[in-house]
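Think of the structure tokens as a kind of shorthand, similar to the way a musician reads notation: each symbol stands for something richer, in this case the local conformation of the backbone. In the example below we present two proteins back to back. Begin with the first one, reading the sequence and then the tokens, and try to describe in your own words what changes along the chain.
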Amino acid sequence: MSTSSATEATGTQAKEPLARILLPKRGEPNDVRMLYLLEAKQNNNRPRWSNRTTVTVPAGAEVSFETYFNAFPAAYWRRWSQLESVVLSVEVEGSATLSFYRSKEDGQRISIAHHDVETGHHEFELPLRNFEDGGLLWFDVSASADTTLRNAAWCAPHAPKPQTLPDGTEYPVQPRKVAVGIPTFNRPTDAVAALDALRSDPFVDDVIEYVLMPDQGNQHPADEPGYAEAVAHFGERFREFRQGNLGGSGGYSRIMFEAIENTDAPYILYMDDDIAIEPDSVYRALQVARFAARPFVVGGEMLNLQERSQLRTTGERVNRADFMWGAAEHAVYDHDFAKYPLRAIGDAQSHLDPKKYDSRALHRRVDVEYNGWWMCLFPRVIAGTIGQPLPLFIKWDDTEYSLRAAANGFPTVTWPGAAIWHMAWADKDDAIDWQAYFHLRNRLIVAALYHEGDVKGITKSIFKSSLKHTMCMEYSTMAIQLEAMKDFLAGPDQLFDILETSLPRIAKIRQNYSDAVILPSASDLPAPTGAPGVPRKNVGGRLGKVKKLPWAAKAALHLLKKEDPAHHTAPQLNLTPEEARWFTLARVDSATVSTAGGTGVAFRKRDRDLARDLVKQTRELLGEIEENFDGLKAQYRAALPELTSRDSWREVFDAQ
């Protein structure tokens, strides 16, 4: 077959669907509909659909499936799968032209073929040769008469074949079944909504062998309306586990433990409870895993729950200089498909302007190092080989698991078109609230396990961050980060012991600091007294850092002075989270700062002597970490097998 053609098959070539062509749910706004199909501006009549797999295109109208959920991520299938081609299968009623296209890694569109189709079942086989670095496949529809398309899907031309394990042995083909695990903590409404979403699509429901739900809170899904109906639907496939609050790692570890010990599920899919689900993503991740050339962790992408046409990120890695999360090469953040659909790749003139943005990068394959557990699928063979998650409560457990999997020959791949909607990180305060303890402690633990560079890159990064917390009057954050460093220095033997007790201990420490106390509103305090001359707007661009130098100098002078107690009665400024930057807060003695969710404010008050003491303790503990890091690395690495064993976790679960 030519590399520039889409051949219509004479017989049934499609063996198994890989991804169905989907229509939006009823009632979705236009920006979300653009994740599924694009309507030509010249259309006099709009396409219509009564279900998610059938669409009628009026005579003379055109639609394109060059969209997030319906374009085929050919570069990923070429790189990671057993397939050399893919088949589009579609049932047609009417008369239309199907036009097939592919893109290059820079988004340039290449026409493949045009086929006039009449009523009947049609299949078209397309090669996957031209996608080494990136590229998508898709098709457009131009209707000659009113034309209905049903049950369109990207399909495999053959059944899955055995896979090759890291040691070179063969791993047999696994059934098309998955255990879906959803840990929940005091989100009963969200948990029931997740169960409803999983049972809403019979096609997806058919591949779900088990639904596993650890309930770690005191507000139970079982008390929520709709729970009984959802559980009745799944019947013996549904299993709930009541346990104490062991955090995300405890919830997910329970899912993996139960799936391995008490089911025969060949695949285990993690999903958060506070999400909106595109059900077909479950099926897509499962098929990716089954048709993989070798087993790997299949990560789902995150769409923004508050801006639902926005893709949060296409992939991440760990920066080895400071051992901190960061973008993978060629990755994209916060891409809005409603503003920049996949075809919005600019032109030669716009490419010369660094201020111009387009969608070219979305066509490039991104190779990642880990995937968040908002949606992540594990072949059973990986879980059986490398063990359970670390007992980290929350943060870095997902990163560590992928790093451990990679060390055992199992990479992680973040897969386009398989996604959930989740609250974006920017809409949370987790870098400064109680979670800051886990951010830092667990970062150090995972670094001890996998970092091979100079530890001073890590400690320098931590100290720089601590100085920013000082300038922003985030003393509670600094205080619990001191606890994080102490607990890291205490070694791995106590990790299981403090799994349930760390959060209450940290919460108690935070009560001693005003910046951790959330008031209902700034209106509950006296009106702000003002701070003339204090900058409140960020300076960006090429000269941004230079322009901030005088601000830094003035901030340093202010921080050396004793604070004015008068400003601790009435705030000088009321700030939004976006305005609460170091160059503003370091020039005042008090300010209210709204929470990221807009539910209240923290009244921050500068305390020079407290800040000095916190910085001094930070510097001392970082010095201790530098001095003992090699020994700590040896301790944590030696303890890893026990920390991740099912027997160790069994003791934890049996004690619940």
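Once you have a description of the first chain, move to the second and do the same.
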Amino acid sequence: MYKVLIIDDEQPLREAIQILGEWDRLQVGEVLEAADGRAGLDMLRAYKPDLVMMDMKMPEMGGLELLKIIEQEFPELPVIVISGFNDFEYARQALRSNALDYLLKPINRQDLNQALQKGIDLLESRKQTRSESISRNITYNMSLPKLKEKLFLSLIERSYNKSADQTSMSLIGADDKGRYYGVLVLRVLNLKAVCEHRFNSDTELLSFAVANVFNEMTESGLTCFSFADPKEEREMIAVYDGIGADAREWQFRAGQLLRSVVTQLHALFGIISVGGQGAPALDPRKLADSYEEARIRVYSVDLLKLSGRSAVGMAEDRRALEIPSLTSRMALIKSSLENGNQRQAATLGSDYLRQIKSTAFFRIGDADRLLTEMVVLFNDMAREHGVAEENMPNPGEKSLRAFGLKTDFSSFDELESVFAGILEHYSALIMQAASSPRSFDAQQIKDFIDNHYYEDIKISYFAEKYYLSREYLMKLFKQQFGYGIHEYVQKIRMDKALRLLDNPALKVQEISEMLGYKDKNYFSKAFRNYYGASPSEYRNQPSEDQDNKD
């Protein structure tokens, strides 16, 4: 369905076009409206209509100017010009800007729909041309393996569009009756180490080697197509399929293949891996379910029992795991680092992991979540101490490795090493930030408030200006002046209020506005909360009371 935008400052004309247009027949699903040239340009940029109908004389931006902009920014956009002025200059500019048609007001049904039909025909022709071009590109410029990989990924990610792609499924044998499809997932645990020692630090070479092992070990009747998961660096995906037997037979064969591949990868390259298998189904669109099942089995493998060996996850582990939260330990770790005691912080981290090690099980997926939580919590702590963002890694292996941190773990002991490395990195950052002299002085904030107390003052303004965290600024200001930032703003305003109220020529409303309060009632409430009396009550107090108040 197409989208049409009407740009005209006359509402009756826009309504007439809405009524007269044969939108259903023309396959137009949405008709948008704009009341002037500037608004029309904004809607063009925001909604990307397929066809535009526009007046030539409009407020804010005239049709001639808008046509020139459309010609530059949307050179292929069909434009139908409508004008009540039979002016040669308008017609000439419309022709120069490749306008599709030029209609004079008042418009009639036949002329309108003929012009619209011309626009739709042009759009259909372009669509056909693009479709043919895409088909040629697929045929000539894409290799069959890459096309199959993209197809399998779209099925696994549930983004496959059957209506937009009628032919690609034949590439994977989906036309064959009785063909089953399933997924195997392989996670390489020692990715960094094996890449450095065996593959010249090239993960693509490692993925190619794994794919070759899958291909070489595939049994007769079972086919297997493997590729690297673009979203998970450690993960390889293998889609298996077979015809001529039932689902249990293909699941058994694929399971044998996975165990053989895991063993062979370790023997050939020293790759330590964990595999998982998803059940097969006749419909290839069920590959997403099979992939999720396989991946759950990988991440359900108990790290406490792995001990640096390859393994295959046999079933999903649904047991509830109760481990102490790292969040509950952060206050003690933070206190240790702030006091310069890095060894105590490391001991607290070791004690926390020792508690985990004493549990009945600890899955690979639990380990991933622990490391992610750790990075998030320590980043928050680092920001509070004014550490620059560029010195903090993001959650995720690539970012951690970019800072020289270890990310491989194939046993709980190796996970402890990864944990210790991350803790040491943040300890150094926070202790350095705590010991380095600060060029920033909270007096700068105080001076700003003293001179701008009547403005809407936000702490985020200072955080962005001085590149320091909100929490650190608030803590620093209170340490130096004994007030929170918001408290100090309130104090300054209330001090000024007393002086202004002593001037009987000033009304309470005027004083409220001078202090930055837009609402007189809000000012009165704030004053009462601060001094125990309303502004009017304060003014009516005896002079000696006012002196005492000052």
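Compare your description with these statements about the second chain. The beta strands are 2-7, 28-34, 51-55, 79-83, 101-104, 179-188, 222-228, 235-243, 273-277, 311-313.
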